[in-house]
Structures are given as structure tokens and as C-alpha cells.
Design a protein that fits this description.
13-stranded antiparallel beta sheet, alpha+beta, outer membrane lipoprotein receptor (LolB), chain A, 13 strands
Length: about 375
């Protein structure tokens, strides 16, 4: 569909060349009369001819911006369509059929604007997370991990955080698949996420498609409050959820994603209880809310699983279920060994429901501004 739309714009753009050629008498164009709704001087006709060329070039720039995924392609599309339609009205007898193409272009542009507006909102939220994170200039030492449960000490030692600065923020990108129900087909996705580690917070943005329709989602956890927003093309709100159950779920999500910044195990808002040589309970208390989950650490010192009781849904429809994240592959990224592939799942009465799998493609600690 993307390339069909691009072809429509290109063909529409090239048809504008006929007006330029006609008014500058560069070739015989018998298909058009050059008749206008009111009389034009020779100079005015040459100006109009030049504007046909401007519209053509503007549409071609629109196609280039659209195909390379620029957020601002819709601005070019609107400007091009407005110039085009003014010319079409002026040359109505010859050009009126071009109105249909401009209507199609403007209709699709509405969705382009919606995605731009959504991305701009998330960018502002991510900027705030980065701006409020502070460089502590502290380095993780052996002494800092003494007193922690044995499996957590093994995890921190294996991850390579000892001797490195304490991270104060993090950004990463993911690819993967997700679905919202066991019977639903998997949807491919791209996501990016920003964390404030000193004062726990994150903003996660995902782009996917559902039945051909662009879907944009954003999960946010800031000041102890969670928020989930899912939209169709950034315009139509499919889900807009908040409340105590979302707060608890967002806190647990943050805890599960500590696997990507292991030094957060030393944070002031986190405490630990040893269970056995492979398991430890993680307890997080922040802004009046408390949550806990169990980390599984294998013999190699890798965090392989985080599990907890988490609310599925929100409000009166929320149900407390077993929820867990499993890590399946590890690599060193920005100097730390961490999971780069894994799955996130619910354990329902009907059985296991795998709803998310991910691959980390980029990761960087301690940034001063967004990508």
C-alpha cells in the first residue's frame, strides 16, 4: 500500500509537467487547451507555468520524504496539494480530474499528521526523562554488592558493571512481535525506550500495524504513575488506561527491565531477599507503592527470568495473574553483558499466553540528549 500511494503521487506530479510545457511552449501538447477560468496575460501565464513545475517538484520531494520515513512528509504533501489545487481551479477545464488525486493525497496526509503529532508528544516525554536524570559520577565497587543475596552478587559480577560508572539513564531500540490475545496473529514491531534510572521512570514507544492500519503505542512510568496509550495512526485512541492497576503493572515492568541496567539493583528504592542459590526476591518501594517479584539467576550469573503477580487490564476489569519475562540470549552492549532476546508472557487459566518477544538492536547508557 505504501508504494501504491507513492506511485499515485509520482504520476500526479508528472502530469503537472504538462502545464509547464504548455505555458512555456516547449512542445506541442494537444491534449490540453490552456484555457483558464479568467484571462491571463502572457507574463501571468508564464508564472502559472512555473508554478506547475513547482508543484511537480514539491510532490516529488513529498514522495522522497514519505518513502524514507520522515515524520514531516505530510507538510510537503499539504503544501504540494494546495499549490496543485489552486492551479487545477485556475485551469479547471483541462485539469479538474486532478482534484481526485489531491483528495486522496490529503486524506492519507491526515494519518501522516496523526503519527507526527503522536511522535512529537512522546519525544517531549522522553526529553523530560533525559533532562531530569543526573550524573552521579559514582563507580560500582565490590564493596557495594556485599550484603546482597548470593545470586544477585553473581549476576552483577558476571554482567561486568563492577568498575563502571553507575548509569543514570539509558536508551534502547527493539524489534520484535506482539499480540493482545492468544487467538490474535503476531504483529511485527519496532520500539524505542528511554529510562531514568536514578529516579525510576521510562517512556516506551512502539510502531506496528494491525490489519494494515498503523498503530502507535506508548507506555509511560513517571513519578510512580503508569499510563498506557494505544492509537490508530496517532489519531484514534484505542486504549487510554491509567490507575492503580496500571501503576502496579508499570512498576513491575520497570523491575523486569532492570535486566538491561543491572547496576539498578543497588538503587535506594530496591531491596532484596535471598530465596536460594538461584533465586532472590526483588522489592521496589517508590512513591507510596510497593511491588515484588522473583529473579532467577543461572550458574553463569545470567538473569534468566523475572516473575510476579501483575494486573492484566485496568479498573474493575483488572485481574491479578502470573506474569513473567524470560531471557534467551545475551551479548555485551555498551560494556555490559545483558539479555538481547527474550519473551514476555502471562500464565492464564487457559494456559501460557506469550504476548511479546523482543530483540535489542541498540543500547547506550548515560546520554545527554535523545537520538
Amino acid at each position: 500500500m505504501k508504494y501504491v500511494f507513492a506511485i499515485i503521487i509520482i504520476l500526479h506530479a508528472l502530469l503537472h509537467l504538462l502545464g509547464f510545457i504548455k505555458e512555456y511552449k516547449l512542445a506541442q501538447v494537444s491534449q490540453i487547451s490552456g484555457e483558464t477560468i479568467f484571462g491571463l496575460s502572457d507574463t501571468a501565464k508564464r508564472v502559472a507555468g512555473a508554478m506547475w513545475m513547482v508543484a511537480c517538484l514539491s510532490f516529488l520531494v513529498t514522495v522522497g520524504q514519505y518513502l524514507r520515513g520522515s515524520d514531516s512528509w505530510w507538510i510537503w504533501a499539504i503544501a504540494s496539494a494546495v499549490i496543485s489545487q489552486l492551479l487545477i481551479i485556475l485551469y479547471w477545464h483541462d485539469a479538474k480530474a486532478g482534484t481526485a488525486a489531491n483528495i486522496i493525497i490529503l486524506a492519507v496526509t491526515v494519518f501522516g499528521y496523526g503519527q507526527w503529532s503522536f511522535n512529537r508528544m512522546v519525544d517531549a516525554e522522553a526529553d523530560k526523562i533525559i533532562a531530569t536524570s543526573r550524573n552521579t559520577s559514582k563507580v560500582v565497587t565490590e564493596e557495594m554488592i556485599h550484603g546482597l543475596p548470593a545470586p544477585i552478587q553473581r549476576w552483577l559480577s558476571n554482567s561486568g558493571v563492577i568498575g563502571k560508572p553507575l548509569p543514570y539513564n539509558l536508551r534502547l531500540k527493539q524489534t520484535g512481535n506482539m499480540r493482545t490475545a492468544p487467538s490474535q496473529a503476531w504483529m511485527e514491531l519496532e520500539a524505542e525506550q528511554y529510562f531514568n534510572i536514578e529516579e525510576p521512570a521510562f517512556v516506551w514507544q512502539v510502531h506496528t500495524r494491525m490489519k494494515g492500519m498503523p498503530v502507535n503505542g506508548r507506555d509511560k512510568y513517571v513519578e510512580g504513575k503508569g499510563s498506557m496509550l494505544i492509537t490508530a495512526s496517532g489519531l484514534i485512541r484505542i486504549v487510554d488506561a491509567s490507575g492503580m492497576e496500571i501503576d502496579q503493572g508499570s512498576m513491575l515492568r520497570y523491575m523486569g527491565e532492570v535486566c538491561w541496567f543491572p547496576a539498578a539493583a543497588l538503587s535506594k528504592y530496591v531491596s532484596w531477599e535471598e530465596i536460594d542459590e538461584h533465586h532472590a526476591k526483588m522489592i521496589m518501594e517508590y512513591k507510596g507503592l510497593r511491588a515484588e517479584g522473583v529473579c532467577t539467576i543461572d550458574d553463569k550469573g545470567r538473569l534468566t527470568r523475572f516473575e510476579a503477580k501483575r494486573y492484566m487490564g485496568s479498573g474493575k476489569d483488572a485481574v491479578l495473574n502470573d506474569w513473567y519475562a524470560e531471557c534467551t540470549e545475551w551479548e555485551e552492549m555498551d560494556g555490559v553483558v545483558l539479555p538481547v532476546k527474550g519473551t514476555v508472557n502471562w500464565e492464564l487459566k487457559e494456559g501460557r499466553f506469550d504476548y511479546y518477544d523482543y530483540t535489542i538492536t541498540e543500547l547506550e547508557y548515560n546520554i545527554d540528549e535523545r537520538w
